[in-house]
């Protein structure tokens, strides 16, 4: 579920229609179905929701919230896209879930780490990610450009959440 301007965007499932994306006013009135497919509304910016396909492919798409049109952004198998400014950070499914970022203005992809990751989240100036390893699993942090990698703590961590002051 995401709050974008004065609307809630959320996924809803029912047995007869399957999963769909809905929009609802904050006063809990006027729910409307805007897409008959699985769209995670968690990553949005400037009137667009960025999401990876689930049903036919895992390509990167955008959904325009003014007319609900969809656009293919990147033909590549991605997971968990997170947009920040001119970059979309994602897990690269075809390459063992390594962490990459796609620059929208130049159409360039940068590999940030070759580590296989399970989870990640992006703050204003850092990326926090869980390295999947049978020998040394760890929560790590790096700068947004992939530099200054450091271990925050060893172990297995899930659901990395970030507020203005804390990572938990």
Could you characterize the architecture of this molecule?
- By secondary structure, the protein is mainly beta.
- It is built from no helices and 16 strands.
- The protein has a four-stranded antiparallel beta sheet, with no helix packed on it. Strands 5-6-7-8 form a four-stranded antiparallel beta sheet, with no helix packed on it.
- The protein is globular, with a radius of gyration of 17 Å.
- The two termini are 19 Å apart.
Q: How far from one another are the termini? A: 19 Å
- Order of helical and strand elements: EEEEEEEEEEEEEEEE
Number of helices: 0
Number of strand segments: 16
Radius of gyration over C-alpha positions, nearest whole angstrom:
17 Å
Shape from CA axes? Answer: globular
Averaged pLDDT, please? Answer: 94
* Structural class computed from helices and strand pairing: mainly beta
Percent strand equals: over 45%
Low-confidence stretches: none
How would you sum up this structure in a few lines?
The chain is an all-beta fold and 168 residues long. It is 0% helix and 53% strand.
What are the salient characteristics of this protein?
single chain; 168 residues; mainly beta; 4-stranded antiparallel β-sheet; 16 strands; 0% helix
């Amino acid at each position: 579920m995401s709050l974008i301007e004065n609307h809630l965007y959320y996924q809803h499932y029912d047995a007869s229609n399957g999963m769909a994306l809905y929009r609802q006013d904050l006063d809990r009135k006027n729910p409307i179905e805007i897409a008959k497919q699985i769209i995670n509304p968690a990553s949005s910016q400037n009137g667009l929701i960025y999401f990876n396909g689930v049903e036919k492919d895992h390509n990167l798409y955008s959904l325009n919230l003014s007319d609900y049109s969809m656009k293919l952004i990147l033909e590549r198998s991605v997971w968990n896209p997170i947009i920040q400014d001119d970059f979309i950070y994602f897990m690269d499914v075809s390459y063992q879930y390594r962490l990459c970022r796609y620059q929208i203005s130049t159409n360039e992809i940068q590999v940030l780490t070759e580590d296989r990751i399970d989870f990640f989240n992006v703050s204003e100036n850092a990326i926090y990610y869980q390295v999947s390893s049978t020998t040394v699993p760890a929560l790590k942090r790096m700068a947004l450009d992939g530099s200054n990698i450091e271990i925050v703590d060893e172990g297995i961590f899930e659901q990395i959440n970030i507020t203005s002051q804390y990572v938990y």
